Amino acid sequence: MSHGKKIDWFPYLLLIPALLITLIIVAWPLVETIRLSFTDASMNPATHYVGLDNYEEMFSRRFPEVIARTFYWMSLSVAFKMCMGIFGAVLLNASVPGRTLARLLVMPPWIVPIAIGVFIWGWMYNGQFGMISGIAQRLHILSGPFEFLAYKNSAFMSTIVTDVWIGTPLVTVYLLAAMQSVPSDLYEAAWTDGASRMYRFRRITLPLIMPAISTMALLASIWTFNSFDIIWILTEGGPRNATTTMIIDTYKTAISRFRYGEGAARAVMIVIFLSIFSACYFSLIRKLSNRGGVK
Q1: Which of 17, 195, 256, 290: disulfide with 190, CB 3.0–4.6 Å?
Q2: Which of 175, 281, 274, 276 is nearest to 227 (CA)?
Q3: Considering the domain 17-291 in this protein, what is its CATH number?
Q4: Where are the domains of the chain?
Q5: What is the DSSP letter of 7?
Q6: pLDDT, tens digit, 9 for 90 and up, residues 142-198
Q7: C-alpha to C-alpha distance for 33 and 6, rounded to whole angstroms
């Protein structure tokens, strides 16, 4: 512009439709949610501005406990997904007979609609006719029928197992693709030098796929944090709120109790927590990259 050059506006004009769609489906709902969080919106048509009352009431109750439970649930689930995903990717990347069939069989938990898969897990958790309770009784692990979804600790772990079963295939395939991009020359040189399989994995595979691991860990954390259907179908947040996460608590408040203002305040807190978590995560990855931990 300083040298009198003309700006070609045509590429910017092509971006206008995408920008409008983004504003309509992302920006406007977010702004409207923030606005509702400062009101007493409910089934009553009359809506009044209440300031920070919704946020103060939210934290005066058991919401901090819900926050801690959400991060605990997310941390356990993501940790299991990543560990099993890395282990599965290593197995599927090995040159063994039937590898193609194994790669196909790992996908059904992700391909099957989530609702159907969760309903099947609900049947297996049933104490009277469920497969898990039946096998445990035959092996004399249990002395009688056990309702996994009727007790706080077992229900909490059951939802994690189901979430891990659904999410692990995607992590496995993603990391498998990353492993296949590692140059084979590096493995051949290390093998020639007498490096063991574990040494090759630690010194070659793991450092080179670390960017993929970091990206998938962040995506898995966000997806798990926002997971609704798995918990809702299995327990609806019970028993006694043992599986009530932030997203479940938001749904109960806004939809079940028709307190839209309070539900909007909870939704805003979810956005804030995820934004802070993502910022901290990227900051950590950047520091590791600068130190040479991730290349």
Answers
A1: 195
A2: 274
A3: 1.10.3720.10
A4: 17-291
A5: P
A6: 888 999 999 999 999 999 999 999 999 999 999 999 998 888 888 888 888 888 888
A7: 41
